[in-house]
């Protein structure tokens, strides 16, 4: 059963406790209802994907009560400071390089070295975020492919029984997701149009590249299609039923014998655990595999149901042929 919590001190305390225990809690923001989880806890983040039945791991936005707490986890550029001053709290998300001691887990960042951060303006959510005192990842609180929810009722309709609680903060004002600006490259780039117009952003920091300019390097606006998604250097071989001495092994369940370097996604064959360990595993095998002069990463078969579908999506992107680097 999903608890329906009211927008008062007791409700906020309960929601914060649940989040701190790794549970999923939906809450309203000024844009849409978000499905929140502790972004520093990979299992909690994996549970978001499972509850939404998402077939792919998109990087998620982490939410903070104020700019100061957000900038603990990412490195702000002068333009980020300017945008934060003009539009936070509010419907604007900034993508920035992560700081060395950031707490946002690999799965919430889809393995990237950048993170998306946002400070929502709804006072109840600010109280919730302050009490939780963790970065809170929150995509829209609807099953994958559904319409973004703007009331607690919408959330219940889609996710009742699949999440711990909904904090009813009333209907959302904006009803449209936040604008996302990527400030991690040489020039600011619009990744998603949203609650704050591009004109206002341009007035604050000057020209902004649009998502589809310079197609080679740009990130398409469609979520999850980002060309900058982390792919390991070592080639990936899927559905391996044997492994050689020059290959690292990404195992699932009982590991194959013969590899000098193994990362087991889940000994008990739990797809949620596997999802929560996927990106850290790829980073680990890539990094250590290079040091040990291995030639590739073999991946054991993983079932395609539940989170297995998102794991396959991610691995097949990582295994796809890559464009050669031009020297
Ligand atoms: O209004 C909103 O932003 C709502 C409410 C709940 O706050 N949240 C929301 O979150 O829409 P989400 O997690 O669905 O947005 C994820 C999108 C990704 O699909 C991607 O486009 C972008 O944010 N994103 C997140 N991290 C990124 C990163 N490191 N680099 C590039 N894009 C990123
Ligand atoms: Mg969404």
Overview of the structural elements:
This protein is α/β, with parallel strands linked by helices and about 325 residues long. It folds into 2 domains: about 5-210, DHBP synthase (Alpha-Beta Complex), CATH 3.90.870.10; about 235-320, Rossmann fold (3-Layer(aba) Sandwich), CATH 3.40.50. The protein is about 30% helix and about 15% strand. It is built from 9 helices and 14 strands. The protein has helices spanning about 10-20, 40-50, 65-70, 80-85, 125-130, 150-160, 200-205, 270-290, 310-320, and strands at about 5, 25, 35-40, 60-65, 90-95, 115-120, 135, 165-170, 180, 190, 235, 245-250, 260-265, 295-300. The strands form 2 sheets. Strands 1-8-2-3-7-4-6-5-9-10 form a 10-stranded mixed β-sheet, with helices on both faces. A hairpin with a 6-residue loop joins strand 2 (about 25) and strand 3 (about 35-40). Helix 1 (about 10-20) packs across helix 5 and helix 2 (about 40-50) crosses helix 8 (about 270-290). The protein is globular and about 55 Å long. The protein starts with a strand and ends in an 8-residue tail after the last helix. Mean pLDDT is about 90; it is low at about 210-230 and about 325. The structure holds threonylcarbamoyladenylate and magnesium ion (MG).
């Amino acid at each position: 059963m999903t608890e329906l919590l009211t927008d008062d001190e007791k409700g906020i305390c309960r929601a914060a406790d649940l989040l701190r225990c790794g549970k999923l809690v939906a809450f309203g923001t000024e844009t849409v209802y978000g499905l929140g989880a502790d972004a520093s806890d990979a299992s909690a983040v994996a549970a978001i994907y499972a509850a939404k039945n998402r077939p792919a791991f998109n990087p998620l936005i982490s939410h903070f009560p104020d700019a100061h707490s957000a900038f603990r986890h990412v490195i702000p550029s002068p333009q980020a400071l300017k945008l934060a001053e003009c539009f936070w709290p509010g419907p604007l998300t900034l993508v920035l390089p992560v700081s060395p001691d950031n707490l946002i887990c690999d799965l919430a960042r889809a393995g990237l070295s950048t993170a998306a951060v946002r400070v929502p303006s709804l006072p109840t959510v600010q109280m919730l975020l302050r009490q939780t005192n963790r970065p809170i990842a929150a995509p829209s609180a609807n099953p994958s492919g559904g319409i973004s929810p703007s009331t607690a009722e919408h959330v219940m309709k889609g996710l009742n029984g699949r999440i711990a609680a909904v904090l009813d903060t009333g209907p959302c004002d904006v009803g449209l997701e936040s604008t996302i600006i990527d400030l991690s490259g040489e020039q600011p780039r619009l990744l998603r149009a949203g609650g704050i117009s591009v004109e206002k952003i341009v007035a604050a920091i000057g020209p902004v590249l649009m998502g589809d300019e310079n197609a080679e390097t740009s990130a398409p606006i469609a979520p999850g299609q980002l060309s900058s998604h982390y792919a390991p250097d070592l080639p990936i071989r899927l559905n391996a039923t044997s492994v050689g001495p020059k290959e690292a092994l990404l195992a699932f369940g009982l590991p194959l014998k013969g590899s000098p370097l193994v990362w087991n996604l889940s000994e008990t064959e739990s797809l949620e655990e596997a999802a929560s360990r996927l990106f850290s595993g790829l980073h680990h095998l890539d990094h250590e595999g290079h040091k040990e002069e291995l030639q590739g990463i073999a991946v054991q078969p993983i079932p395609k149901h539940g989170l297995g579908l998102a794991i396959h999506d991610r691995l097949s992107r990582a295994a796809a042929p890559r464009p050669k680097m031009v020297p």
